[in-house]
Design a protein that fits this description.
By secondary structure, the protein is α+β, with helices and mostly antiparallel strands. Helix content is 26%, strand content 23%.
Length: 544
């Protein structure tokens, strides 16, 4: 149906993205509950039970009128996150429930997409917690490894330092606020009870890692689930004057050169506020590949080599996201289009990434899809060039999956906004071996800057994660906790100076000096006897 609508031109007339059209098919089969589940799995629904989307406008000056027209249709509107001429919207499920057939529903949706001065509609760029499949390497003791316990015994516990945890879920946080696992008092942008009732626990785990390293730091937790609430959550942390933000969320969509999406906003905030913003590098080293499009057989699809005309991968999660970027215009108005299909082991198509790209203002050089996968099964990605002036360089991420060894390209796998120049980007090391975690995303960025900036141990054992909190998600808040200790010891340091202190004292691993696997090396605080708050920090890297 999607192929027919696209080829016939009807999809363009509807002005609806293909991924939303798929929701209509789901609606026809299972009604509104099925749509709600599918939208949630794909990141298309927020905590207010709204289907979310982004609109681009033909005339930015018409923003107020567009908002008024959308509000009359029952659509919630949110301020633009960063890009001029773009508007975030939410369509309440209660409003959608008024339409009892796919025909009436599509008529309502097309009315939204044809509001005067709306140029196009597209799904929000996906982002997800940068956790990894738990691997039982050890029972983690990160604070001991990095020297934080020695600092705590010397009286440096993060007291007086405000640390913000920006995340997409704080489930179970209330029961852990016992003074041991988490502070008895935590400030938040929502009620603790509401946060605790959430199913996602990723932010709770990050907060525990910070607390383990800096037990007396003041914790501020900020929940978000879409672009609009992300902006509000960041504002909450800045309004409360946090000195450190730890952020273990990332997106594979973008050129990854610091010029797209959250990276742009992060750079502006860091420059204006002086906050130290730590970002997880991502866990995509085993699921990233890049290549130049090659239709050597002349059959209309990419061929990796003479024996591989598709890209096999193993899914690790029931919800697997496939992202395909290519080198095009990340400022919009992209004209080239590449599409892909996902096939199961029997050759059946289970998902596609084939949004029309025609040079419109809201057209960017990427395709993505999230589909229901069977963990452990192998799937196959087939790539085709719909239209392009030349053979582009293709860049693929299989989030929650793993590529075969022959296809893996660990380099340039750092995600957004870990690619931002203003981000203090963190990779993950294996505790017992002081070597890189195999999945830890690697640099350099697309514009050839070294990332990550530093690495730290992950897989800390927590009360709610007995197998260990794996991934760069676990490493990043450990660096945030260490930064809180440094700020207590040297309260006059700027964010840049704290970063320099941690980098200077890191244990160099891999190639000598900074490299795009370990950054400056593994986080290591110097012996606390070197601390001299009156004279300023000692940058001599003396190990604990």
């Amino acid at each position: 149906l999607a192929t027919f609508l696209k080829d016939s031109g009807l999809l363009a007339k509807f002005n609806l993205p293909e991924s939303y059209l798929d929701l209509l098919i789901i609606y026809d089969k299972g009604g509104l509950p099925a749509v709600q589940k599918a939208a949630k799995d794909r990141g298309l629904i927020n905590s207010k039970n709204e289907i979310v989307a982004s609109l681009s406008l033909t005339n930015s000056d018409a923003m107020a009128q567009v908002i008024s027209d959308l509000n009359k249709l029952g659509v919630t509107t949110y301020p633009p996150l960063s890009s001029i001429g773009q508007l975030e919207i939410g369509i309440p499920l209660d409003v959608l429930a008024q339409y009892q057939t796919p025909g009436t529903l599509i008529q309502y949706l097309t009315t939204i997409t044809h509001v005067n001065n709306v140029a196009g509609v597209y799904p929000p760029v996906t982002r997800a917690p940068t956790g990894a499949a738990n691997v039982p390497y050890y029972s983690g003791k990160g604070p001991l490894t990095i020297g934080a316990l020695a600092w705590q015994k010397a009286g440096f516990t993060g007291k007086g330092v405000k640390v913000g945890v920006l995340d997409m879920g704080f489930g179970g946080i209330k029961k852990l606020m016992n003074g041991k696992d988490l502070p008895k008092t935590i400030q938040s942008n929502s009620t603790i009870s509401d946060l605790s009732a959430q199913s996602e626990t990723h932010g709770t785990d990050c907060a525990q890692i910070v607390h383990g390293a800096a037990p007396d730091a003041e914790l501020y937790v900020a929940f978000f689930d879409d672009n609009a609430s992300w902006s509000d959550a960041v504002k909450y942390l800045l309004d409360n004057k946090v000195q450190i933000i730890t952020y273990s969320i990332g997106s594979s969509v973008g050129p990854r050169d610091g010029t797209f999406g959250e990276s742009v906003t992060l750079n502006k905030i860091v420059k204006q506020s002086g906050v130290l913003w730590l970002v997880a590098a991502g866990n995509e080293a085993l699921d990233h590949t890049t290549f130049k499009y090659n239709d050597s057989a002349g059959d209309g699809q990419h061929h990796f080599d003479s024996s591989n005309d598709s890209l096999p991968f193993v899914a690790f999660d029931p919800h697997t996201t496939v992202v395909m970027n290519w080198n095009g215009s990340w400022k919009g108005s992209e004209k080239d289009e590449y599409d892909f299909s996902i096939l199961d082991k029997d050759g059946n198509e289970v998902a596609t990434g084939a949004e029309p790209v025609k040079g419109r203002k809201n057209d960017y050089p990427f395709q993505l899809t999230t589909f229901s996968a069977t963990p452990g099964d192998t799937y196959y990605m087939v790539i085709r060039k719909a239209h392009a002036g030349a053979d582009n360089t293709i860049d693929i991420f299989i989030n929650n999956g793993e590529l075969p060894k022959w296809a893996r390209v660990p380099g340039h796998s750092v995600t957004v906004p870990a690619d931002a120049s203003g981000a203090f980007t963190v990779g993950a090391t294996i505790f017992t071996k002081d070597t890189i975690e195999p999945y830890s995303s690697q640099g350099p960025t697309s514009d050839n800057r070294v990332k990550p900036d530093i690495t730290a141990p992950d897989n800390e054992v927590l009360p709610d994660v007995p197998d260990g909190f794996a991934g760069t998600s676990g490493a990043t808040p450990l660096v945030a906790g260490a930064a809180a200790l440094v700020l207590q010891a040297y309260p006059n340091l700027t964010a840049a100076e704290v970063k320099a202190y941690l980098i200077t004292n890191a244990k160099d691993l891999g190639a000598k000096g900074a490299d795009s696997v370990f950054g400056a090396g593994r986080l290591r605080l110097p012996d606390p006897s070197t601390i001299n708050s009156d004279q300023g920090p000692d940058t001599n890297p003396t190990a604990v």
